[in-house]
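Researcher: Re-running this chain for the archive, since the previous output was lost when a drive failed. Same request as before.
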Amino acid sequence: MSPIYREDAYRREAQGKVTGHTDEGGVIVEPALFYPTGGGQPGDSGWLEWDGQKLPIATAVKGESEASVLVPAEPAALPPVGAHVLQLLDWERRHKLMRMHTALHLLSVVVPLPVTGGAVGAGTGRLDFLMPEPPEDKTALEVALNNLVDADLPVGEMWITEGELDAQPDLVKTMSVKPPRGAGRIRLVRIGDGAAQVDLQPCGGTHVARTGEIGALRLEGVKNKGKMNRRVTIALGG
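Model: Regenerated structure tokens:
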């Protein structure tokens, strides 16, 4: 069953069925609405509701067979296996994560260097680059980033086989995180169409539909993170 977060990143709530519990106290609901931590993007938070009860969810993590395991915010009674529940996202947080994740893809466009690490946050995000010297003009970097936002480029996806990815190694920008293998195909996130395409790279995260939805971005800083690495941090304008 395909997870809802991959089919429709804008779904805020969905019915589901509890298919299991984990030994650590997690809950597995199918189909999965909550995005599980992965690829630098934190897991979703929100709530489950059933039979007049409400369970706050602090985050979601990956379990066996890529299942999204919901982690309760506090010790509480779990909905039993087989129960039908309503999944509700903390939408404001999810949407900020979507905006930031797409913004970081744009950052990898305006800084065309290998990415050695990264993290998506609800207000700020960062990418670490193989960058021996700092950028000469940080203001120009911020302007270039916001120009891509203002271009309101469409954000879409396509799928290729693992063999096709092997034949195009330049698609993988991240040195530290490799696309998951074993399913036979890889999801690519594309920004822009046709001649206006600016980015295409493997990604399993959630994204906004157009870059204009990101809103204004601020370049928060560039920090030295070792002899050859620099951390570029950006923030949402609101």
